[in-house]
């Protein structure tokens, strides 16, 4: 073991809790204060999009991508801003995205067919182009960020004027703040009776968002996505914000892009919509994307038009992938196919390794599907003497779940602890709870060999108290 999770997080400039989550997802429930070895550290560092150097057997160094490969300032050219729309459900994110896109079609290309590829571009009156991520909500945003791929330059925070600040509004504000992404507040549905834009502005103050109308610096605009009111103003404000940010990228280098969405298409095979971060992607380029590789067979824009190449800030569909990558995966053009396949197969191996240490799916998982998807999971294996106890334990443990950590019952059965119970607990790094039962000798041997944490109880109250304490420990100290 060379470094604690906490220390590694510091060096990577990431949040320790995000590292703990990533480790957990790789099947390693490790707390912030525990140390990990070089291999694990490297896995994590790569996962977050950085590069790790082994300085010696006992020391490592983190190289941030941007540092190593920063483009020479002289090569940088302006690029369009990438805008995401966030806000509470039903506040009008989809309507706004549709309206902004519709504006574009009527203003621009006659009869242009729009393809929903996960992102689109709008040409503003002044001539500047804006790229919109067409997946409303926070999932895409956080998913990409978890992979170290931040593509969003500006967020439009949609708040319905008749409904005001709601939980997902506040969550969106939190995301923007953490990612350090500026936002523009679009107060929507001003056409509705009962709309109270001023109240929205006042409530935003409570979250330290001071909009222009209140003398602050965050731009705000009253709109109606339905009636298409003030959309030009919104676009103008976006353009202004983008101008301030002086966004640029080097177009003259092998392309680097981020996957916005991807799927298997019946006729076309694996298709990914990517957003070009820098460089120019061309037909015929060889690339690695996540654990997949390929050769660009076609580059298609958001109007279904085939292009020869795509430049920074452009969202395009790419054909010619070996398989379907995940949103947030980075596509990198590499020199040759051998290299591409090497990198892809290495990554696949790592993924498989992580997967086999994860628990198999079972009926009892329905508890975890109820749980919010971003919470950590605390896996357990339960054996009890009678069905009634088993059920009572599952209920009691499920009640321990919080927003941050959820109990996940991998298996719950009646009878003595068997070899397969031990195996399951060992493979998924879960404690094995025996309620009035003990393992047979073979199972005991496996448990000892694999270091299974065995917990015996005969009182449910003691059991829940113990697990509650463990779960709190798993989360680590608040940071
Ligand atoms: P999302 O869940 O944030 O994507 O919200 P939607 O775009 O699906 O909108 C939710 C509902 O609000 C739909 O019924 C829309 O027609 C309606 N809506 C969206 N924008 C406006 C608006 O500006 N005015 C009014 N009156 N209704 C709107």
Automatic annotation (TrEMBL):
Q: Where does GTP bind?
A: 87-94, 134-138, 188-191
- Domain (Tr-type G): residue spans on this chain: 78-248
Q: Where in the cell is it found?
A: Cytoplasm
One term of GO molecular function: translation initiation factor activity
Where does the protein principally reside?
cytoplasm
Q: Give UniProt keywords alphabetically.
A: Cytoplasm, GTP-binding, Initiation factor, Nucleotide-binding, Protein biosynthesis
- Function per UniProt: One of the essential components for the initiation of protein synthesis. Protects formylmethionyl-tRNA from spontaneous hydrolysis and promotes its binding to the 30S ribosomal subunits. Also involved in the hydrolysis of GTP during the formation of the 70S ribosomal complex.
Protein family membership? Belongs to the TRAFAC class translation factor GTPase superfamily. Classic translation factor GTPase family. IF-2 subfamily.
What name goes with this protein? Translation initiation factor IF-2
């Amino acid at each position: 073991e060379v470094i604690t999770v906490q220390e590694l997080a510091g060096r990577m400039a990431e949040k320790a809790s995000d590292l703990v989550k990533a480790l957990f997802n790789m099947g390693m429930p490790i707390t912030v204060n525990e140390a990990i070895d070089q291999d694990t550290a490297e896995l994590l560092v790569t996962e977050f999009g950085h590069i790790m150097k082994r300085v010696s057997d006992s020391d490592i160094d983190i190289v941030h991508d941007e540092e190593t490969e920063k483009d020479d300032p002289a090569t940088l050219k302006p690029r369009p801003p990438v805008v995401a729309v966030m806000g509470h459900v039903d506040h009008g994110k989809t309507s706004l995205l549709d309206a902004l896109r519709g504006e574009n079609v009527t203003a621009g290309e006659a009869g242009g067919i729009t393809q929903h590829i996960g992102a689109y571009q709008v040409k503003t009156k002044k001539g500047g182009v804006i790229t919109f991520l067409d997946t409303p909500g926070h999932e895409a945003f956080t998913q990409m960020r978890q992979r170290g791929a931040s593509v969003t330059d500006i967020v439009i925070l949609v708040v319905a004027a008749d409904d005001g600040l709601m939980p997902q509004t506040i969550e969106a504000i939190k995301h923007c703040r953490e990612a350090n992404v500026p936002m523009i507040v679009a107060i929507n549905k001003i056409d509705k009776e009962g709309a109270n834009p001023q109240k929205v502005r006042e409530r935003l103050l409570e979250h330290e968002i001071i909009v222009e109308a209140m003398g602050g610096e965050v731009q705000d605009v009253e709109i109606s996505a339905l009636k298409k009111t003030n959309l030009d103003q919104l676009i103008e404000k976006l353009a202004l914000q983008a101008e301030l940010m002086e966004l640029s990228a080097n177009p003259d280098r092998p392309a680097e892009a981020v996957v916005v969405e991807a799927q298997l298409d019946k006729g076309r095979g694996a298709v990914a919509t990517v957003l070009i971060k820098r460089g120019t992607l061309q037909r015929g380029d060889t690339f690695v994307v996540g654990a997949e590789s390929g050769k660009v067979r076609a580059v298609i824009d958001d109007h279904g038009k085939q292009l020869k190449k795509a430049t920074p800030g452009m969202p395009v569909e790419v054909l010619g992938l070996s398989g379907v990558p995940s949103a947030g995966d980075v596509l990198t053009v590499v020199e040759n196919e051998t290299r591409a396949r090497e990198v892809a197969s290495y990554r696949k191996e790592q993924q498989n390794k992580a997967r086999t240490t994860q628990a198999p799916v079972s009926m009892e998982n329905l508890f975890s599907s109820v749980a919010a998807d971003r919470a950590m999971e605390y896996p357990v294996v339960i054996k009890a003497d009678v069905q009634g106890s088993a059920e009572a334990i599952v209920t009691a443990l499920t009640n321990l779940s919080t927003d941050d950590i959820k109990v996940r019952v991998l298996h719950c059965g009646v009878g003595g602890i068997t070899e397969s119970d031990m195996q399951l607990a060992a493979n998924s790094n879960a404690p094995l709870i025996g309620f009035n039962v003990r393992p047979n000798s073979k199972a005991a041997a496996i448990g000892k060999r694999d270091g299974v944490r065995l917990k015996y109880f005969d009182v449910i109250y003691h059991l829940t108290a113990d697990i509650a304490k463990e779960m709190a420990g798993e989360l680590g100290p608040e940071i």
